[in-house]
Amino acid sequence: MSKEVTEEGVQASQPARATRDYVDPPPAPLFDIKEIIVWSFYRAVIAEFIATLLFLYITVSTVIGYKKQTDPCETVGLLGVAWAFGGMIFILVNNTAGISGGHINPAVTFGLLLARKVSLIRAICYLVAQCLGAICGVWVVKAIMKDFYVVHGGGANTVAPTYSKGTALGAEIIGTFVLVYTVFSATDPKRNARDSHIPVLAPLSIGFAVFLVHLATIPITGTGINPARSFGPAVIYNSGKVWGDQWIFWLGPFMGALAAALYHQHVLRAMTIKALGSSTANPTN
Asked: Phi and psi at residue 11, in whole multiples of 5°?
């Protein structure tokens, strides 16, 4: 039988002085110069670069394969595109979580920075690595699928003609909120203590969130929710329409990540109330 964990990390049947079975890590320092002199920092940055490269290579290849089909049964279809994005996130987060945290998305990195889970230096290096990885991944796609790449839009995100830019921005905000909220919840120390015997749950939850958001928003924006995913194809495809819509795929995800960080940290986890030592916090939620 699994242990029932309260907000204070104590079994309900044990006295309050019992040892916690989960520990909230201390906030990451905003500027941590010491981390740039250790190999694990550079290993993490490299892991983010390679993971984002692989993510863009597989997903953009799938998008172009889907768009070039003439028969609905010829390729994976819209459902398969969503599975490609969600499945790759599941695989890559599972593979890199222990090295870099498995962000693979500047919006996720931004949300974790706001929650003081990573330092500013690490966040900036991750963002640069993710964008460079995305560019390289799409470049590989173009080199391999050169006969179809330009004709079928290069896998770039744009707002569909039947939707306004405001609608597209809203879709990106909500979609990224779902993703980053899932990241926070799936990696919560309290949940890790309770579900530590099933380590695959976090990447599986995150991958499913990406899959479901794609089902909802592919018809609107092609689904960004990841500035690197949108930036890489924009650089390689280099179209006026793509660059004209690019701001939506940065502002939307960052706003969604901000909302998710505030909601999880200050509403669900009540970090502000805890810091003030309020006695009104419910210890069972």
From this structure: -60, 140
Secondary structure (3-state) at 246: coil
Helices (H), 97-239: 106-114, 120-144, 146-149, 165-186, 189-194, 201-221, 227-237
pLDDT tens column, 52-110: 999 999 999 999 998 888 776 677 888 999 999 999 999 999 999 999 999 999 999 99
11 beta partners: 5
CB 122 within 8 A of CB 228: no
Instruction: Let me know: does 159 contact 220? Beta carbons within 8 Å.
Output: yes
The fold adopted by the segment(s) 33-276 is Glycerol uptake facilitator protein (1.20.1080)
Q: Which residue has the tokens 């499945």?
A: 87
Report which of 137, 109, 127 is spatially closest to residue 261, judged by C-alpha positions. 109
Could you give the C-alpha distances from 55 to 24, 61, 84, 105, 215, in angstroms and in order? 31, 10, 9, 10, 18
Name residues whose C-beta falls within 8 Å of residue 215's C-beta, 6 or more positions apart in sequence.
78, 79, 82
In the structure encoding, which two tokens stand for residue 210, read together?
């990406």
The Cα–Cα gap between 211 and 201 comes to: 15
pTM value surpassing 0.90: no
